[in-house]
Amino acid sequence: MRRIVQSKKLQHVRYDVRGPILVEAQRLEAEGHKILKLNIGNTAPFGFEAPEAIVADMVHNLPESQGYADSKGIYSARTAVAQYYQAKGLTDTTVEDVFIGNGVSELINMVLQAFVDDGNEILVPAPDYPLWTGAVSLAGGTPVHYRCDESNGWNPDLADIEAKITPNTHALVIINPNNPTGAVYSAETVKALVDIARRHDLVLMADEIYEKILFDDAVHHHVATYAGDDVLCLTFSGLSKAYRVCGYRAGWVMISGPKHAATDFLEGLTLLANMRMCANVPAQHAIQTALGGYQSINELIVPGGRFYEQAKLASRLLNKIPGVSCVEPRGALYCFPRLDPDVYPIDDDEAFVIDLLRAKKILVTHGTGFNWFEPDHFRLVTLPDVDMLTEAIGRIADFLATKRN
Fold this sequence. Notes:
The chain is an alpha/beta fold. Helix content is 37%, strand content 15%.
């Protein structure tokens, strides 16, 4: 019988956040072990529940949610998103500039399928959220990773970006606040990134899903506000993280800038939206409620709030481990600590996290899974409460004590 094999399109596609380490974790769970999963930013398992108003509004609209919706999204949701960006200074945003999707992940894939031709180069940060690299590859493009500088708070290395632009470079991806590093870019940095795109005629793709999760004096600056009317900008965001509804899959992409120059691309994006019929309709009813009125996320990101206290605790405890350094996150839900290669000579960081999983039943993700260049980092989710987080990092410290030179 002929062997049935995966498509060659998948040859260079990876998504290690749910890769071999998760398979090993599932094997251990099947044996009866309890695994603490710190590999994905899934809020619900750690006691973060959706605001009651969002749940109530979705339930209230269920009877009217049984049929297909407009392929770009229901009118109330798209209007709410458009008005949200109007309030941020993007006053020209209209309902027609918004596409609703089954989370940002679906929209990233749709946009890249509509935008990328074989061999097109897309600049993606390193480290990155690996869906970006995988989706570029799946669309036939070539992800080119620009370095973010750990010694400079994980800010993008602007010179490295410039050095990697070629005549075949078509877009620049910006993840801000950043996953996995927790960096939040200053206005000056965002302006500089936009200026690079402007000078080299690049499309900007701004992943801003963590825009509301900010600590201390960190301020989020929307890329689109600096792109103006001469740089096409696609802004991605949604409800999953700030509103603790990961499973609802309610996200959007907003298009701004010279849309008159992108009519053919937008026609292609509309075609793909039509082909998937529509996004999940019940969850779309949550968007208007979420974006208007009281913002419960504010209680979580200030001193005393869980997101704030857990992020601070995690970076503090990690930095106490000999040979470990961690830039304190200024936003998002993660720490991305470095293991000093002189103390921990690791050649294979995926094998390292699998060894940690087997020994301590803690599931984290290796740094090269986020397309980092060296096997000397791992990502840890800061969602567990302070007691659980203290226990988890203590187990990691115990494990590392057995690995030191």
